[in-house]
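Subject: Protein entry, chain in single-letter code together with its fold tokens

Category: Structural biology, sequence-to-fold work with a learned token vocabulary.

Notation: Tokens come from a learned vocabulary of local backbone shapes, not from coordinates.

Start of record: The labelled sequence and token lines come straight after this line.
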Amino acid sequence: MADAEPWKTVKIPPIVQELVTSMQEPSSLYVIPEQNRAALAGSEMLDPIPIIDLRRLSDNNTDEVCKLRSALENWGLFLAVGHGVEPGFLGEVMKVTREFFKLPLEEKQKYSNLVNGNEVRIEGYGNDMVVSEKQILDWCDRLYIIVEPEDVLSEYTVRCRNIANLFLENLAKLLNLREDYFIDMLDENAMTYARLNYYPHCPKPDHVVGMKPHTDASVITIVFIDDNVSGLQLQNNGVWYNVPIVSNALLVNIGDVMEIMSNGFFKSPVHRVVTNAEKERLSLVMFYTMDPEREIEPVPELVDEKRPRRYRNIKTKEYLAQLFETFARGTLAIDTVKI
């Protein structure tokens, strides 16, 4: 949120991109407990995440709608092709992302997320807040912006919004709601955030995570992943699975807000990022959130005696604040609103 209050941080997290140039192995600040390291390898999916052709979905193709339902019920996300964003344009978007992180540190620091010396805000360049001296840090630098940028990112934002609207229409139809139910919730006061993630290569990828397990505090999320390096993992029934790379596909997932509004019909997937010993990795994530002052609550039509209310009401800005606090502590914000 543009007017969000910054949070106190126990210490200033280092810039990982700078650390990696001067260390042989990660600092203890980043090393996860030994009992958690074995799972970092991840498992290959026996049942792959469905690939949804958005052209067919926009034509109300029955098979594609069924694939979408299956993807959301089993995984909470899918890989989108046929989205109309040309490979060359996606390449330009990734180039812009990469070029930001190639800037000299003093240039990037002009966009720092630090304020008043010891506070962290959502927007800006750096890392997330630290709430405890014992907190294990993520091997990742990021730039958070509210998407009103210029040039290539502006056009990318417009194209992603078209994809988001198509997805939201189909979610409403799957829930037997009017087609524009969720689109109307992303009104002129709604906020869209872009998060540019940079994961430097890591000397000990079996000891460090790029980003800890979490869910998204969005309505929905659209992710453009570097085609060259895998690293995204998804938790399903307690098992971590590697999300495959599909060239020029966009990953679309349910966020916590949609889980709440659907009264648990859709689930926000738990995911994380692992590191790579040899290659850097980038991603560009678009988070679609409602008006900061708007209440998040289950849709009344989706609450009845057979399916009672499963989540309490909470204001959007309060939930976003909860997300950053729980993320830093390694817990899930969605668990705080379950009844």
In short: Residues 151-174 form the longest helix (24 residues).
